[in-house]
Inverse folding.
């Protein structure tokens, strides 16, 4: 009997995967408006203070606090400063009518909101009675209180979300250097697979993994080439791997990673490159294949990740391993999803030596419900759930126990 290789933990498998990543070196410059979802290639420094000038947070009157110290001061309204206009220096004993976002005139040190003021028109001009004794600085947003000129606002390797784009724009950056999109090839092994739209012949099932995996890759901003369903034959698998290696950073497959006679991924990858077959102590998704496919020029390779065929297994292994791999490929440093301690509102008997990733849903009382059927082909659990419970090997879960929960929002993007 051959000795069985010890199974890898999920963390060990992820470390091995990430250690192998050589990040994409090519970058491009994009208009900031088109950079949503991309990864920043270089850190960005602000050339200016934000806000660029002291300005008012309120509609009201800019004053000298000392002129209003008594709590009821009648001042001449000597000027009017809408947002975008520059006022005159404020003379002692006067006020400036001012509107939110407008620059504070030199000499003023406080703004009194208009609700605390009584304006009055007279033949001598406009006056205002201030019924409040402001602190110096009241309702003033200071220049640089958000960002100081010269400071780093975004680090290289940051994934640009809506808020990072807004931040970049707030310091006037019209374009940003980003890493080029990862180019990912996918195909789906299995003679039993049919496409939605086709009739289902006896013995066939629909290729759901195509939809799940492509959706996940789209979420991560990949350029996808889809080679579709590839028959269970060594030649067809080798041929597709060879074609896919040419223009892609990464090839992802589903199915055929076991060691049955109809599983051709292992010999095909070995013939076209290098392969590690891993047994990972997780449930679902035990087998995972990782390797490299040689390109025709032989000097360079495409990465290869072979996911299991079972739909929940391929979904979960993508979330746990492929997502961080693709992020790291783009130079993202922190690829770990955030997890939360949450209360289990169910019981689960002790499992085997595998780390379970259970489909669970947040219920109305702030706890977690478990989907009843945790089978690796039960896709309903993935659509029903809000995330995965990361349950350590051999751990029973009792009603009210605190468990580690990773929301899908942390795993899908
Ligand atoms: P395999 O890993 O090829 O042995 O497949 C394991 C199980 O997953 C089998 O029941 C397959 O029919 C199923 N399966 C494989 N590929 C897909 C796919 N693309 N979509 C849905 N189910 C699949
Ligand atoms: Mg198969």
């Amino acid at each position: 009997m051959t000795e069985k290789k010890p199974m890898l933990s999920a963390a060990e498998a992820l470390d091995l995967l990430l250690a192998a990543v050589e990040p994409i070196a090519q970058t491009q410059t994009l208009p900031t408006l088109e950079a949503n979802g991309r990864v920043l290639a270089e850190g960005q420094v602000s050339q200016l203070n934000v806000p660029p000038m002291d300005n008012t947070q309120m509609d009201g009157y800019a004053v000298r606090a000392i002129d209003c110290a008594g709590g009821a001061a009648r001042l001449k309204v000597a000027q009017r400063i809408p947002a975008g206009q520059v006022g005159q220096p404020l003379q002692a004993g006067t006020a400036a009518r001012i509107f939110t976002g407008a620059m504070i005139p030199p000499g003023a040190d406080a703004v009194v909101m208009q609700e605390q003021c009584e304006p009055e028109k007279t033949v001598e001009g406009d006056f205002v009675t201030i019924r409040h004794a402001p602190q110096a600085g009241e309702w003033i947003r200071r220049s640089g209180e958000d960002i100081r000129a010269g400071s780093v606002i975004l680090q290289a390797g940051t994934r640009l979300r809506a808020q990072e784009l807004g931040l970049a724009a707030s310091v006037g950056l019209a374009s940003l250097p980003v890493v080029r999109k990862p180019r990912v090839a996918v195909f789906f092994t299995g003679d039993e697979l049919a496409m939605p739209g086709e009739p289902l012949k006896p013995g066939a099932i629909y290729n759901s993994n195509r939809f799940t995996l492509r959706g996940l890759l789209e979420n991560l901003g990949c350029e996808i080439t889809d080679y579709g369903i590839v028959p269970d034959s060594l030649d067809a698998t080798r041929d597709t791997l060879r074609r896919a290696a040419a223009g892609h950073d990464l090839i992802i497959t589903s199915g055929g990673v076991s060691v049955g006679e109809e599983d051709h991924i292992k010999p095909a990858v070995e013939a076209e490159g290098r392969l590690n077959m891993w047994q990972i102590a997780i449930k679902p998704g035990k087998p995972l294949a990782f390797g490299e496919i040689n390109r025709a020029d032989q000097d360079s390779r495409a990465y290869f990740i072979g996911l299991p065929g079972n739909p929940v297994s391929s979904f979960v292994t993508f979330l746990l391993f492929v997502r961080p791999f693709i992020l790291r490929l783009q130079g993202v440093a922190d690829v770990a999803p955030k997890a939360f301690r949450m209360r289990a509102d169910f019981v689960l008997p002790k499992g085997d030596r595998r780390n379970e990733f259970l489909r669970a849903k947040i219920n109305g009382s702030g706890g977690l419900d478990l989907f009843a059927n945790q089978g690796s082909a039960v896709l309903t659990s993935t659509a029903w759930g809000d995330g995965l419970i990361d349950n350590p090997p051999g751990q029973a879960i009792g009603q009210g126990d605190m468990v580690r929960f990773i929301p899908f929002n942390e795993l899908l993007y």
